[in-house]
Amino acid sequence: MICPKCGTEIKEGYLYCQKCGEEVIMVPDYEVELEAGIEETISEVAEMMADTIVVEAQGPDAGIYIDGTMEPDFDEDVQILSPEKPDASENHGNVSGGNIFVRLIARMTNRKNVGPGIVIASAIVLGLVLVFGIFKITRTIQDYYDFDFQYEKARSEFADGDYEAVVSTARHVVSLRPAEEKPRLLLADSYYKLEKYDEAIAVLTDLLKDFPQDQTIYERLIANYETEGDIDSIIRLSGQAGNAAISALFDDYVSDAPEFSVDSGSYFEPQSVRLMSSKGGTIYYTVDGSEPDKNSEVYTTPIRIDEGETVLSAVHINEKGIASEIVQKTYTVKIIATEVPQVITEGGDYTVPKLIKVKSSQSGTIYYTTDGTDPELGNSKEYEQPLPMPLGKSEYRFAIISDSGVSSDVVTVKYNLKINGVVDKATAQSAVQLRLMTLGHPVMDHEFVAKYGYYANDRNYYIVEEYSTNDGKKRRESTLYAVDTTTGEIFTITRNTDKGDYDFGVVL
């Protein structure tokens, strides 16, 4: 079809010109079907008349047969045969029912020996046949222009799977009522069944202009686009969604861009960037400024951004393989040297124990180890208050570590504590256990270990820890004991967080 306004060719299925927007007035071109229906009706009527009236030019049985009765005095070249005259086709010059009717009446009225009853009867029979034919032609025309009749016909053809017939019928139905939605949907569905997706999309696109809130139109368009693999058109279509229900149809076709836990900027320590997406799928990323795709690194754990400039790019690809827009962040990290922790209690040999004290003049948390390894964020103990000095030789390593894992240089301090007392370490351990047993505590199977030394009120003490075993697991009890290295007196000892020291108590 050619647009009458701009001359552009209009594709099948479209009801408007895609170039100038001119509406296409659908002129029914299906009168061929109507004519065929009328011709079929006329043929049926003619056959009915021909079955009753046959013109025979000659023959020994020449005469008029009406319901099997012969009128011998009738003109020998005319016969009226009943259905019982099976050989009427032999050498008979058959003509159309209308001609026969005219000739029959003319001849009968010119014959003197033909009774008026026969003429009247013949006229009535043929008249009824013609009336039936006229009625049927009229009904055919009425049905052809009846919207409901034609729509039901199209539905029936669709149910029978005759989609080519549906296209023809539905286009005619649309021409009867162009604004009706149902026949246009039926036409689109038939195109879809015939795998004519472009035609189906054309009909549905036009429908969407008239019914922008019809969810079923969106569903059909999505199905057609997806079958063609045209995801871009589905994404563009999502921009027309007018309500939440319609928007939900595009959930599987819209991939949300990944979110970054750290925004672009300059930082003075390494950063740990998390990538997130609210929908299922996979996040891919690059750190060299290139565009990520499904062949790039898969995001699984936070990405560490070290010193220097890093361009982090990420894309989210959902479960249908649809990629989001690419998000890119630029980070500049310049690390400023972190001050080392200051250990106030110097290393060396001791006979009088001291609390090990450390401080820092800048932000950050002090971590320490006693096993010879360097402190690490999350794996080492946090220094919160002064520590008791261990008996014998020990090595402490201290470092200031930021929340992002940036560590200062490690400070290592070694101590060697030897307490000269009347009571030795083993005696102090046994004394605590015996005292508790005397007081009725079930500590026969417990282990008591003197690990640290403590000095207070001009006296040295052993700090003794109590351990119990449960299900094969060794557990330290919460109560600590202090044993005077000179007198053997036993006390409980508890941490005083306000003054960073210990308080003594009575063993009960």
Notes on the structure:
- By secondary structure, the protein is an alpha+beta fold.
- The protein has five domains: 31-144; 147-248, Tetratricopeptide repeat domain (Serine Threonine Protein Phosphatase 5, Tetratricopeptide repeat, Alpha Horseshoe), CATH 1.25.40; 259-333, Immunoglobulins (Immunoglobulin-like), CATH 2.60.40; 342-346 and 353-413, no CATH class; 425-505.
- It has eleven helices and 24 strands.
- The longest helix is centred in the first third of the chain and has 29 residues, at 116-144.
- The protein is elongated, with a radius of gyration of 53 Å.
- The model is unreliable at 25-30, 53-59 and 62-98 (pLDDT under 50).
Summarize the structure.
This protein has 508 residues and is an alpha+beta fold. It has helices spanning 31-52, 97-110, 116-144, 147-159, 163-176, 182-193, 197-210, 215-228, 231-238, 244-248, 425-438, and strands at residues 64-66, 69-71, 259-260, 265-267, 271-273, 275-276, 282-286, 297-298, 303-305, 308-317, 327-333, 342-343, 348-350, 358-359, 365-369, 381-382, 389-390, 392-401, 411-417, 447-456, 459-470, 473-484, 490-496, 501-505.
What labels describe this entry?
508 residues; Serine Threonine Protein Phosphatase 5, Tetratricopeptide repeat; Immunoglobulin-like; 5 domains; 5-stranded mixed β-sheet; 11 helices; 24% strand
